[in-house]
Amino acid sequence: MNTDNLQIQIKTFFGLEEILAEEVKKLGGRKVEIKNRAVNCEGDLGFLYKINYSCRTALKILVPIKSFKAFDADRFYDRLFDVQWDEYMSIDQSFAIDATINSERFSHSQFMTLKMKDAIVDFFKMKYRDRPNVDSKNPDIKFHLHIDRELVSISLDSSGDPLFKRGYRQMQTEAPINEVLASGLLQIAGWDGKGNFLDPMCGSGTLLVEAAMIAMDLPAQIFRKKFAFQNWKNYDAELFTTIKEFRINRVKEFTGKIVGYDIDLKALNVARTNIEAAELEDVIEVKKQNFFESKKELFPLLVVFNPPYNERISIEVEDFYKKIGDTFKQNYPNTLAWLITSDLEANKKIGLRPSRRVKLFNGKLETRFLQYEMYEGTKKAKFDNQN
């Protein structure tokens, strides 16, 4: 494997591709190219370590090692058997295969995964008269199989566990927001740690923790114990240690306030547990507060939140969204507020016109991320006063 010029594919959620591309460029990625739910780029081994450790909107980071066309399962097996698998793993390492298949010809992902496993095992049996073990739960080496019609792509997964598993979530409420999505929302909303931040329905505290990590420039994976690339044959432990130390030295002090409200005591306890696990209890404050009875206390203020789903709402949904709009209008002047919702008609119920609408997916759930700009008095009065 040429480690000076790796082809790298970084997976993300639909709608976060541009945010991810900006992160990749800042971290030193070359030839950055935006794809659907992914960004492709080039970089060396150090860049691969850096992006795994620091990137906030990456779900997994793949290094393609082989691509070919196959029109039947036998051809698929033959082409895989020809790969020099001992370049990527040794016989005493376990492996697993993760598959994404979009093909009428090869519609059964489990069968294709099994064929690939057979090709790898047979390669080792032929060359070494022994075989590596398959371990689907905790493999040393993870391969990714992607089939799009007849085009087969094989990649090494450099991350291992998905990168939304930051390591600070000890507990969760129902339907917590994914960490990668949370960070993406904050970056779309323009949060850069200047000013103050409020999540008025904070649930398990994910948006609060991600906001604090951005504000302090903490690496996204500061709490992660293991990456898949640490089991690779070419792993450079000294280089990775240097990259981590350099990154930690960039952490900065945050002078604003990050606050979370919730009316559910259980949710607040969960949030506090996760905030403590992230060692951010000195930076983030959570308190029992009904947002609908609150007033703006912090200036300047950015509000970003994920209103709870129906199972945590004891009132009628339409009334709930109307109260959000009324609270914004009456109690939060001169505030920029964003909320994410899977109710695609929510903006009509809120009674305010969103100034931005971003289509996103939370897993398979289509959502809208809506921006509202509240002014003192009316928008017209604001502009009249400026003239």
UniProtKB/TrEMBL annotation:
Species of origin: Soonwooa buanensis
Pfam families to which the protein is assigned, alphabetical: RlmL_1st (PF22020), THUMP (PF02926), UPF0020 (PF01170)
Keyword Mitochondrion: no
Keywords associated with the record: Methyltransferase, RNA-binding, Transferase
THUMP domain: residues covered: 47-158
Methyltransferase recorded as keyword: yes
Any GO MF annotation of the entry: rRNA (guanine-N7-)-methyltransferase activity
Annotated protein name in UniProt: Putative N6-adenine-specific DNA methylase
PANTHER family recorded: RIBOSOMAL RNA LARGE SUBUNIT METHYLTRANSFERASE K/L, RIBOSOMAL RNA LARGE SUBUNIT METHYLTRANSFERASE K_L
InterPro entries: DNA_methylase_N6_adenine_CS, RlmKL-like_Mtase, RlmL_1st, SAM-dependent_MTases_sf, THUMP_dom
